[in-house]
Amino acid sequence: MYKLLFLALILIRFLWDIALHVLSAKQVGKPLPKSVQGIYDEAEYQKWRAYNGKKDKLSIASSIIALLINVLLYCTDLISVIYYAMPGGVMIKAILFFLAVGAAETIASLPIDYIFTFKIEEEFGFNKVTPKTFIVDTVKNYILNNVLNVIIFGLVLLAYNLLGNYFGLIVFAGLALFMILMSAFSSVFSKIFNKFTSLPEGELRDNLSKMFEDAGYKLKDIYVMDASRRTTKANAYCGGIGKLKQIVLYDNLVNNYTPGEITAVFAHELAHFKNKDTTKMTFFNMLNFLPMLLVMTLLMIFPEVAQSYGFESANIFFAFYVGFGSVLSIVTQLIMIPFNAMSCRFERRADSLAYELGYGDELISALRKLHKDSLSDMNPHPIVVKLTYNHPPLHERIELIESKKN
Ligand SMILES: [Zn+2]
Predict the structure, then answer these.
(1) Closest CA to 268 of 212, 340, 338
(2) What DSSP character marks residue 288?
(3) What's the 150 CA to ligand 1 centre distance in angstroms?
(4) For the segment 192-235, what is each residue's pLDDT rounded down to a tens digit?
(5) Which of 109, 164, 326, 371 has the fewest C-beta atoms under 10 angstroms from its C-beta?
C-alpha cells in the first residue's frame, strides 16, 4: 500500500521528465522569434539541433537509470535489508549505508557522466576535462556528498534524540543556518575545485570597481576563475556575505568578451546584489525543506510506513532517507515553479538595471554570445520555460531591453 504510493510518486516524476522531453522535441523546427534570428547560421543551427538531440537522449537514459534505482529501493525492502546488514548503532549504520548506496549510485551514473563529458561535450568542442580531472572530480564529489549527508543526518539524529517528534523544528533551524554558512563559504568550496586569480590592474578592473563602489559596495576583490580547465562556456557570479563582496568572472568571459560586454554582465550581477536577490532566493529555497520535514515527522508518528519496508518500528534513518531522497523529488519540482517565476522576475529587473546604467546594447551582445557559445535553446517551449527555467529565455530578455529603448 505505502510502496504503491511511493511507486506512484516515482512514476509521476519519471513521466514529468518524459513530458518535458516531448514538449521540447515538438518545439524543434518551429520558426525562431525575430529577436534571436541570425544568432546561429544554418550550420550552427544544425550543430545545435544535433547537440540537443544527443543531450536529450542521454538525459532520458539518465531518467531511466534513476527510475530503476528508485523502483529497486522503494518497491522492495532493500533499504532496511542494507541498513540492518550494517554493524553498529544508528549513526554507524547510516554512514555505512550512505557510503554503500552512494557508491552504487555513483557507479550507475558513471557511464552517463562519461558519455556526456567525453562523447557529447567533446564532440561539440565544449569539453576541457581530462580523464584525470574527471576521476578526481568524481571522487571529490562522492566524498563531499557523503560528508554532507553524514553531517545533516547527524543533526537530524541529534534533534530527534532531544525533541522526539518535534525534531523537524530544530532541523529546520539547523538547515537554515547551514545554508547561510554554505553561501557565506561558497568561495571556500569552489576553491576545492578551481583556482582563483585577481583580475589584473587595467581599464576593465577600474571600470568594474568604480561601478561597484558607486553603488555603495565594498569590493573585496575581482577574481578570475580557471573555468576553462573544464568547459568553454562563460559565466560570472557573485559570492560572499556581509560587507566584503567578491565577483568571480570565468576566464572564458574575460578572454573572449569585450570590456564593454564584461562590464554589462557585471552591471547585471550588481543589480542582483543591490536587490539582495541571492539572499532572497536562499531564503525561499529554505522553504523547500518544509514538506520534507513534514514527511519525516509523519513517518515517525506513523510507524506503519517504515514497518511496511521491513523496519521493526518507526526509524529515524528511514524517515531521513525518504525525506531527503529522490522519492520526493516531484514535490520539489512542483515547489520550484513559483520560485523559478520569481527568479525570472529578478533576472528581468537585473537586465533593466544594466540597461539603465547604459549597458543595454552591450548586454544584448553579451547575452547573444553567451547563449550562442553554450548552444542554448533559442526557442524553448513556453510550458517548459514556465515549469523549469529560472532565467527568462534569450528572446524575452532581448525584447525587454529593446522595449526600454523606445
Ligand atoms: Zn542574473
Answers:
(1) 212
(2) T
(3) 33
(4) 778 889 988 988 899 888 888 888 888 888 889 988 877 777 77
(5) 164
CB 58 within 8 A of CB 112: yes
Report how far residue 395's alpha carbon sits from residue 406's, in angstroms, rounded to the nearest whole number. Answer: 17
Whole-prediction pTM:
0.79
- State the distance between the two ends of the chain, measured CA to CA, in whole angstroms: 61
Residue 367 C-alpha to ligand 1 middle, in angstroms? Answer: 11
For the sheet with 236-239, list strands across it. Answer: 196-198, 218-225, 244-250, 236-239
* Cα(277) to centroid(ligand 1), Å: 9
Contact criterion met (CB below 8 Å) for 331 and 337:
no
Distance 389 CA to ligand 1 centre (A): 12
- Distance from the alpha carbon of residue 290 to the mean position of ligand 1, in angstroms: 26
Distance 272 CA to ligand 1 centre (A): 7
Distance CA 401, CA 406 (A): 10
Average pLDDT on 314-339 reads: 90
Q: Quick one: 350 exposed, middle or buried, by C-beta within 10 A (0-12, 13-18, 19+)?
A: buried
Q: Could you tell me the distance, in angstroms and rounded to a whole number, from the CA of residue 29 to the centre of ligand 1?
A: 28
Residue holding cell 543526518? 153
Q: Which tens digit of pLDDT belongs to each residue from 231-272?
A: 777 777 776 666 677 788 888 888 889 999 999 998 998 888
> Which cell is 216 given?
555603495
Q: What is the Å distance from ligand 1's center to 391 Cα?
A: 7
Say how far apart CA 240 and CA 180 lie, in whole Å.
10
Q: What percent of the chain has pLDDT over 90?
A: 36
Ligand 1 centroid–CA 347 distance in Å is 5
Distance between CA atoms of residues 117 and 245, nearest Å: 33
Q: Quote the DSSP letter at residue 249.
A: E
What cell numbers appear for 244 in the block?
566584503
Range 33-39 average pLDDT: 87
* pLDDT score for 239: 67
Residue 325 DSSP one-character state: S
**pLDDT confidence of residue 376:** 83
What spacing in Å lies between the alpha carbon of 137 and ligand 1's midpoint? 27
Contacts of residue 268, defined as CB under 8 A and 6 or more positions apart, other chains included, come to 350, 351, 353, 354, 363
Q: Which residues contact 51 (CB under 8 A, 6 or more apart)?
A: 120, 124, 375
